[in-house]
Design brief:
Blueprint (H helix, E strand, L loop, with lengths): L1 E6 L9 H17 L3 E6 L11 E4 L4 H12 L3 E3 L2 H6 L2 H10 L7 E5 L14 E5 L10 E4 L2 H13 L4 E6 L4 E8 L5 E4 L1 H4 L20 H15 L3 E8 L5 E8 L7 H17 L1
Parallel strand pairs: 1-2, 1-3, 3-4
Antiparallel strand pairs: 5-8, 6-7, 6-8, 9-10, 9-11, 11-12
């Protein structure tokens, strides 16, 4: 089969340009070894559309996501779906995970142009996250210790043209990152400090890792259910493990870098893509 493979734009890979490119290249290589052809594009090259009927993509540009949705309506098979890509924009993701009763911290979506101290009262301390997209700048996910700090962050978002933000209550515990491929047994989790794996260094706010027990099967079940809610097959995310061993999902990503495990993940990703386009 002939695939279009769409690489992620550098602006959407903060501090992970090489890692994102590496997992894309490995996946394309495995698809070629399986006998498929792959035409590679960067996001900017796709603005006017593509003609291949099968697409695997790491794109995140909203215009590209909408283009992929139109292609899907016309019969093109896209992995991850353009709808799934859009579902992972923060506000969309938060709403879907809430609706799906996925265990997430208490949260609230607010209008950045109308910051109100009252919005923060039941959530402090909390994380203030841009709601319209992923975090692509350090300030797109900011920690607020009190309402005044939170309102200042919201006002700064408004000045940048970001109209919505998600307030998410800070949960004390160990931060665990994970990667998965839906429809397969592949699931990998790790503590980011073990690999110095970080975009912006916010993990330091959680403090020293205490290594509370991680119930891997439960974490995988939560992540899989979240991926199903978001309509993404190739995914990753972050979770907090509390001292009483509860799990809270705090982020999900469509096709992350798989950096600590890309050699193991890439053939599974390629096989999943093959499975989805041939069934």
């Amino acid at each position: 089969m002939l695939f279009a493979g769409i690489r992620r734009g550098h602006q959407f890979s903060p501090n992970h340009i090489g890692n994102d490119r590496a997992v894309f290249d490995l996946t394309a290589s495995h698809l070629r070894q399986m006998g498929h052809q792959v035409n590679e594009y960067c996001e900017d090259e796709c603005m006017k559309g593509i003609g291949e009927r099968y697409v695997f993509t790491m794109a995140r540009e909203p215009q590209i996501a909408r283009m992929l949705q139109i292609l899907e309506k016309n019969g093109t098979r896209v992995i991850n779906s353009g709808y799934g890509i859009e579902n992972c924009y923060r506000n969309n993701m938060t709403q879907l995970l809430n609706e799906g009763k996925i265990p997430v911290p208490a949260n609230l979506t607010v209008d950045t142009r109308k910051p109100q101290v009252a919005d923060f009262m039941d959530l402090l301390p909390c994380w203030v996250k841009r709601g319209d997209f992923h975090a692509i700048h350090k300030e797109d996910v900011s920690f607020a210790r009190n309402a005044d700090e939170g309102c200042t962050i919201l006002a700064e978002y408004a000045r940048r043209g970001i109209k919505l933000a998600v307030l998410s209550k800070h949960v004390v515990g160990d931060l665990v990152k994970f990667y998965g491929v839906r429809g397969t047994d592949f699931f990998y989790h790790f503590y980011p400090e073990e690999y110095r794996h970080s975009k912006f260094g916010n993990e330091a706010i959680n403090g020293k890792t205490e290594y509370y027990p991680v119930h891997s099967d439960e974490l995988q079940d939560i992540a899989t259910r979240a991926a199903e809610m978001l309509n993404i097959d190739i995914y990753g995310g972050d979770a907090i493990i509390t001292p009483d061993e509860a799990i809270y999902l705090i982020d999900m990503n469509d096709w992350p870098s798989f950096a600590p495990c890309r050699a193991q993940a890439a053939p599974v990703i390629a096989q999943r893509i093959h499975q989805l386009v041939t069934k």
